[in-house]
Design brief:
It is a single chain. Helix content is 28%, strand content 19%. With 100 residues, it is an alpha+beta fold. The chain has a single domain, classed as 3-Layer(aba) Sandwich (Glutaredoxin). Helix 1 (32-45) packs across helix 2. The radius of gyration is 14 Å and the shape is globular. Bound molecules: FE2/S2 (inorganic) cluster. The site of FE2/S2 (inorganic) cluster has 11 residues, from loops.
């Protein structure tokens, strides 16, 4: 029987890095691995490690609108994200961390 626990994070950010190699549209077409690494760098740089978790995700079903980034449990979803958009996502995370 599995253990059920409360999430240890204030917020958990999932970045879809699914890559279909051009066969069909996927988040990696918009360089989502770079979105993820830049987000991780920004979160660590602000001292949010342990509060904000950045994780790679598989396909989340909105492939034509990639890159997709979802923030849970707050139900915030960014689509069409490019590496240069990371600061906008960080701005959405900031009040969540401040509320904690
Ligand atoms: S490939 Fe990212 S949502 Fe499907």
């Amino acid at each position: 029987m599995p253990d059920q626990n409360e999430s240890p994070y204030v917020t958990h950010v999932f970045v879809c890095t699914n890559d279909r190699g051009g066969a069909r549209k996927s988040c990696a077409d918009n360089n989502s691995p770079s979105v993820k690494s830049k987000l991780k760098e920004a979160v660590n740089g602000r001292g949010w490690k342990g509060k904000v978790r950045i994780s790679t995700s598989g396909c989340m079903g909105l492939c034509a609108k990639g890159s997709n980034v979802m923030i849970y449990p707050q139900k915030i979803w960014f689509s069409g994200v490019l590496p240069d958009d990371v600061e906008e996502i960080v701005s959405a995370i900031e009040p969540l961390v401040a509320e904690d």
